[in-house]
Specification:
The complex is a heterodimer of chains A (about 375) and B (about 130).
Chain A lengths: L5 E8 L11 H16 L8 E4 L4 H8 L5 E3 L7 H15 L5 E8 L16 H5 L8 H4 L4 H8 L3 H15 L13 H6 L2 E4 L1 E2 L8 E10 H4 L7 E10 L14 H14 L8 E4 L6 H8 L8 H6 L16 H4 L7 H13 L11 E8 L4 E8 L4
Parallel strand pairs in A: 2-3, 2-4, 9-10
Antiparallel strand pairs in A: 1-7, 1-8, 4-7, 5-6, 8-11, 10-11
Helix pairs in contact in A: 1-2
Chain B lengths: L12 H8 L4 E5 L5 E2 L14 E5 L3 E10 L11 E8 L4 E4 L16 E9 L2 E8 L3
Antiparallel strand pairs in B: 1-2, 1-3, 4-5, 4-7, 5-6, 7-8
Classes of the chains: A alpha/beta (about 375), B mainly beta (about 130).
The structure holds zinc ion.
Chain lengths: ~375, ~130
Amino acid sequence: MTPGSIAVVGAAETTRLGKIPDMSVIGLHADAALNAMADAGLKASDIDGVATAGASPVEIAHYLGITPTWADGTAVGGCSFMLHVRHAAAAIAEGLCNTVLITHGESGRSRVGAGGFGRSPSSLMGQFEMPYGVTSPPTMFTIPVLRYLKARGYTVEDLATVSVIQREWAAKNPRASFKDPISVADVLNSPMIAWPFRMLMCCLVTDGGGALILTRAERARDFPQRPVYILGAGESVETPMVSQMEDFTSSKAFRVSGKKAFAEAGIGHADVDHLMIYDAFAHLPLYGLEDLGFCEPGEAAAFIRDRNTAPGGKLPLNTNGGGLSYMHSGMYGMYALQESVRQMRGIAPAQVPGAKISVCHGVGGMFAASGTVIFTNEAP
Amino acid sequence: MDRALPQPTPETQHFWDGCAAQELRLQRCGECQDSYFPPRPFCPKCGSRQVEIYRASGKATLYSYVINHRPRPDMGTEPHSIAVVELAEGPRMMTNIVGCPQTPEALVLDMPLEVTFESFGAITLPFFKPAEA
Ligand SMILES: [Zn+2]
């Protein structure tokens, strides 16, 4: 893909977010997809590429009445949609299809029409992790953190500060699940989930969905919304078992994905006006700032504490409130992408004035996978 | 609700047989000498299929952990550790730390540990406990 040659021309979330017990998983996919098609002024017959995770692209294409010439079912967890954007951009550039719909829907809270979390007891995770009491992210994603805190000299207060500042962003967002201000003390007094993680350091569990529509940049001006161009993207995967991460203080998948995206976009860190780092838990923005190269290892906690990522700071981060306060259906990457697109369109509830470049970085599984997309609103 | 027990595969059977015999078994590459985990019939570092199974020392240090406070009836009624230990031979593995209070004060990073085994029907799991001085 030539930087800027592919654009997002449709983007929307489900009509409602939060608790949606009257909609199933596929219904949430469809609601988001129909909203994104309306946003772009397109019908299903105009779409010829489909990508999704959590459901099969076959299910989504048939349910919506799309006949694709390209389909992608890459499912590597919550950052799958970043990978879909990258794959779709390459597919459109190659001429495999012209207009791609990427959908997400998840009944994370209500569990309507949702599959189970089960993993085979003969998988490597099933044999060498599950017997010890891990089954859900709060006891898996958190495992490397005590080592990370010790290596970096960070504290639980540093984790809590991430939650506090993201709540400041959420307070500006009418659609955020949690908007009331919180203090470090509030976070440290919230119920213990898995030492050292308290409830307010963990993401929400909600229902919702989102969808994106991509096409060639030269067509993008014909659409009703301000085009958002893809400057660069990256992806990588590391290990399905968090216990086997190469380095507990740094994600290899983050480093590889981020480096690829920045190289393709041809930008430096000083060019970035807005940043999204998938925050399933409070440690992820710290890892992300370091592994993407915004901070030296050991400097991320002070960078956040000094309000660089807070409202008014020089690097606004997770401006929708993030998975910690906005919403988190399970595969949150789609909502991070939506916020980057809103910021580039200039319509975000907590709009960063004059923002021209947004970096959107996702994680999949427990540091298992990563995807990074760099957007701009300046025509190539 | 019972503990989620592993279902061995042909590639991992030797590990679980070892646990049943109170031995922690690792694999080592015959070409680059790299010790690795989890089990597989080739070296993840160099790709050689010339690998051997050997009995590890059972010594380890506490690398990282959480103490789960969420209800897990299969894991008992009290908060319990879920840990990653670094084996003396190099590889890391997930386990539970047993034989000590499940508190941050008792579970100190880098503390020396040693393997211990507990059987659950046909499966024996390796756990780690504080090493005796
Ligand atoms: Zn080897």
